[in-house]
Structure formats: C-alpha cells, structure tokens
Amino acid sequence: MRLLLCDDHAVVRAGLRALLASTEGIEVVGEAGSGEEALAMATRLRPDVVLMDLQLGEGMDGVTATRRLVRGDPPAPRVLVLTMFDTDADITRAIEAGATGYLLKAERPEELFAAIRNAASGRTALSAPVADRVLARMRSPRPGLSERERDILRQLARGLGNREIARALFISEATVKTHLGRIYGKLGVETRAGAVAVATERRLLP
C-alpha cells in the first residue's frame, strides 16, 4: 500500500520512514511538512493512506487537512492520525473530520503497522487510551448547550473578551466566566480557541 507522511518535524518523518522501510507491503511515497503540502502531494501521488499529525505549525492544521483529503476527488485516501495529543476535543475533531483512525506516537511499531493496514482496508484503528475515552464519552454523553451558552459561544467566535461579552449580553463578567466553565466541560476543551473549534466542527455556530 502507498503511504504519505505528514508531520512538520523532519526528524519525526525520517524516523517514521526508517521504521516503515522494514515493513513489507508498505511503501512511503512522499513526505509532507504541512497540511497544504499534504493536499498537493496526495493529488499527485494518490496514496492509499495519509499518516497525519494534528499540530502542523503555521497554516492549515491536521484536522482541516484531514477533512479536505477525505472529501477530495475519488479515490480519496484514508487518513490515520498519529499524534501526541489525546484530549477529547482533538479526538472528536479528527473523527468528525473523517479520520479512519487515531493513534498516539507512544504506540509500539507493531501497533502502528497494524493500524496502517486496517486504515487502508477501511477499518477503524484507535489507540487503547483513545478507544477508552471514546467509549467513556458514549456511555456518559455531555449535556447539550443552553441557549445562553450558545449566545456566549457566538460572542467567543467573534473574538470578544469576557468584559465585551458581558456588555453585549447585559450580564456580569462573573456570569460569563461561570458559563464559560460549563461550556468547556460540555465540549471537552480547556481553552477559548478549543471551544470555538469544537463548536464549529459540531455546527453549533451559525
């Protein structure tokens, strides 16, 4: 199978290429250092699987690149995320963008090889810690956002700070902070940017 690597660290790409060179049936056909480069190379090289990091420095991130890859002209490649991050928000965004699997960089080589083969066949591949988090969320789904929380999210998406949000909605800054804490908990994020990103992915914003 044909594999395209996408990671913004050249040393990581070199290590992966060397590791995969010892594996029969997997051919690394290219290396991309950015999301934009991955899209261009995938169009030209037609890989079966793209091994995608989520954090790609400046420019397009791995989630956006994943979404565009899987929605591109057929035959679209499968995208297998390989990252250091296992937060609920990262996992959710990647899967909703169309990733076939989600692996952590701490995995053993044998697990990586098996995940690549599974991804090429269209089978889901998840690291054990990631699978545990997904199952936990399914068993205990987070409650939906209230209308006031949606109002605050909309203001966040506009780039407003707490004081500006309070003025716009005629509430106190303390109330804004309380709502933000609830929003973060429901969306599984820890930052304002994360909240906006997840809300956008789930189409919670107009």
TrEMBL record:
Listed SUPFAM superfamilies: C-terminal effector domain of the bipartite response regulators (SSF46894), CheY-like (SSF52172)
Organism superkingdom: Bacteria
GO biological process, one term: regulation of DNA-templated transcription
All copies of domain HTH luxR-type, residue ranges: 138-203
Family annotation (PROSITE patterns): HTH_LUXR_1, HTH_LUXR_2, RESPONSE_REGULATORY
A single GO molecular function term of this UniProt record: DNA binding
UniProt keyword Transcription, yes or no: yes
Family annotation (Pfam families): GerE, Response_reg
InterPro entries documented for this protein: CheY-like_superfamily (IPR011006), NreC/VraR/RcsB-like_REC (IPR058245), Sig_transdc_resp-reg_C-effctor (IPR016032), Sig_transdc_resp-reg_receiver (IPR001789), Tscrpt_reg_LuxR_C (IPR000792), WalR-like (IPR039420)
PTM annotation (4-aspartylphosphate): residues: D53
Domain spans labelled Response regulatory: 2-120
Keywords tagged on the record: DNA-binding, Phosphoprotein, Transcription, Transcription regulation
Protein's UniProt keywords contain Transcription regulation: yes
N-terminal signal peptide: none
Protein name per its UniProtKB record: Response regulator transcription factor
